[in-house]
Design the sequence.
């Protein structure tokens, strides 16, 4: 009897392990995703670069001015799971992405899969970038190849068990890597739609402004309701109409993204500073679209 | 007698806001509020929402410069928390960095006062330099807690 239970338990464990192995397998984009892409447009690619805020993580720590165009890597991103270091994504052949194809790049951004077919960690916010259009990615990729190369080699991540097992990220992705829109709107206002794309996709605003589950997945049902600051003290504000932004007009929000000043002339701070500096480089219509979206989303109480 | 009661009352009324602003946490917040108010004048001028007024601009830059005097003394040990402070722990762990951020703000505002811009274009040059200080310091040394 005991023996039978033992054998059953072992069999079940094997089944579970085999299932976990298959469930955690990396998947990549199909060839059809790459069909019919128009020629890349560098100006639009540059806009996606600012909207995506790649420099906030991939520029060298403390980079100023033009150094923010050198994607040398090295910035430490502290989390509950350990310390991640942003890699070098400059066009350098050895240290960076010099040998990557567009297909490698698109798979990293949309599927969270690296060049060797390995899972990437969601400290790289591909859970948002997955909503980007292939054409925008194509433009962005072309633009990134024009940036200066750097031979800097970023430190390896410092993660404890079991977070150092990349394969396990596959199971996490099954739960949290979703490419659909977060908010559903009854109307089809063009500015709101553009704002939705920018916020939920390249802008990855939800990665900071939305609370997370114990295993680090975004709680989409309380989207943008604010969160504890993942790498230190304080909070990241609620930016739904249920929080402090209730009293801000759409114009106030757009002005904040452009200038960094709130309606009572307090100044932007913390990790929002580099986001705001990037937002200031977008066309005014894009900032207005983001503001229109933030005024239209469901209100929530503070998520922290 | 009536007179003394009235006097005491008046004194208490005058004293209470001063008392309320007595802690370093509260004092530095009041100082920064005055900076925010001055910023209101300057930002509205830059946006063209109010007409260019050289005297008002000079006064606003001066208010900011005054704010930097003794500002670092308003962050003594033991005031890291309490009274809704949003000061970052980095102010104490990286004191030199914080002090040089205050110095830079002091220099840029005193240059702006000295430049005494008389028209919008001249003003915008000074405004741009001064305004950068706000986000640079808030990026490193202030955290939203609410």
Sequence:
């Amino acid at each position: 009897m005991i023996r039978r239970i033992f054998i059953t338990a072992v069999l079940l464990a094997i089944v579970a392990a085999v299932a976990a192995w298959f469930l955690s397998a990396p998947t990549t984009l199909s060839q059809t995703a790459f069909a019919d892409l128009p020629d890349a447009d560098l100006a639009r690619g540059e806009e996606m670069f600012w909207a995506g805020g790649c420099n906030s993580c991939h520029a060298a720590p403390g980079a100023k001015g033009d150094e923010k165009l050198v994607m040398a890597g090295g910035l430490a991103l502290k989390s509950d799971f350990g310390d991640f270091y942003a890699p070098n994504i400059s066009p350098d052949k050895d240290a960076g992405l010099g040998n990557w194809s567009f297909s490698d790049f698109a798979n990293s951004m949309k599927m969270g899969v690296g060049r060797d077919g390995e899972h990437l960690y969601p400290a790289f916010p591909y859970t948002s970038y997955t909503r980007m259009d292939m054409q925008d990615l194509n433009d962005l990729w072309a633009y990134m190849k024009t940036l200066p190369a750097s031979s800097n080699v970023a430190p390896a991540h410092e993660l404890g068990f079991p977070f150092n097992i990349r394969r396990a990220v596959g199971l996490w992705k099954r739960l949290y890597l979703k490419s659909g829109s977060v908010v559903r709107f009854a109307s089809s206002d063009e500015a709101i739609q553009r704002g939705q794309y920018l916020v939920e996709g390249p802008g990855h605003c939800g990665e900071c402004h939305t609370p997370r589950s114990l295993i680090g997945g975004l709680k989409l049902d309380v989207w943008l309701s604010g969160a504890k600051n993942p790498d230190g003290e304080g909070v990241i504000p609620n930016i739904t109409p249920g929080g402090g932004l209730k009293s801000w007009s759409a114009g106030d929000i757009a002005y904040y993204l452009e200038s960094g000043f709130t309606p009572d002339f307090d100044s932007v701070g913390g990790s929002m500073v580099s986001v705001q500096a990037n937002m200031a480089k977008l066309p005014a219509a894009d900032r207005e679209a983001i503001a229109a979206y933030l005024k239209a989303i469901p209100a929530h109480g503070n998520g922290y | 007698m009536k007179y003394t009661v009235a006097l005491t009352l008046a004194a208490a009324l005058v004293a209470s806001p001063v008392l309320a602003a007595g802690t370093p946490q509260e004092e530095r917040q009041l100082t920064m509020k005055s900076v925010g108010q001055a910023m209101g004048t300057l930002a509205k001028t830059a946006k063209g929402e109010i007409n260019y007024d050289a005297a008002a601009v000079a006064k606003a830059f001066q208010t900011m410069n005054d704010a930097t005097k003794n500002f670092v003394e308003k962050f003594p040990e033991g005031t890291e928390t309490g009274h809704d402070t949003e000061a970052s722990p980095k102010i104490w762990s990286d004191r030199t960095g914080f002090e040089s951020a205050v110095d830079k703000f002091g220099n840029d505002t005193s240059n702006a006062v000295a430049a005494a811009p008389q028209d919008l274009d001249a003003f915008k040059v000074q405004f741009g330099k001064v305004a950068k200080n706000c986000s640079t310091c808030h990026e490193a040394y202030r955290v939203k807690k609410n």
Q: What stands out?
A: The interface with chain B takes residues 229, 232-237, 259-261, 264-271, 273-274, 276-277 of chain A (CB under 8 Å). Strands of chain A lie at 76-79, 82-85, 158-159, 227-228, 235-236. The longest strand of chain A covers residues 76-79. The two ends of chain A are 51 Å apart (CA to CA).
